[in-house]
Write a structure and sequence with these properties.
single chain; alpha+beta; 1 helix; 4 strands; globular
Length: 62
């Protein structure tokens, strides 16, 4: 999988919790990639943009 140009970011709500976060790259066409910030060379989860939006919306719902 070619991740050249991927711009990884963490949530602005992530604190300084020893790197226990996920990072998201949502700038590549047609896919959103998610990885563990503690294991950047490990496995990725890959979503369509629509599936990622649905996940984020659901996660925000109290």
């Amino acid at each position: 999988m070619d991740l050249t140009g991927a711009r990884w970011h963490k949530s602005t709500r992530s604190g300084n919790n020893s790197g226990a976060c996920v990072e998201v790259a949502d700038n590549l066409p047609g896919r959103v990639h998610v990885r563990d910030s503690k294991d950047r060379d490990g496995d990725l989860l890959t979503f369509t943009p629509a599936a990622w939006r649905a996940f984020v919306e659901q996660a925000r719902t109290p």
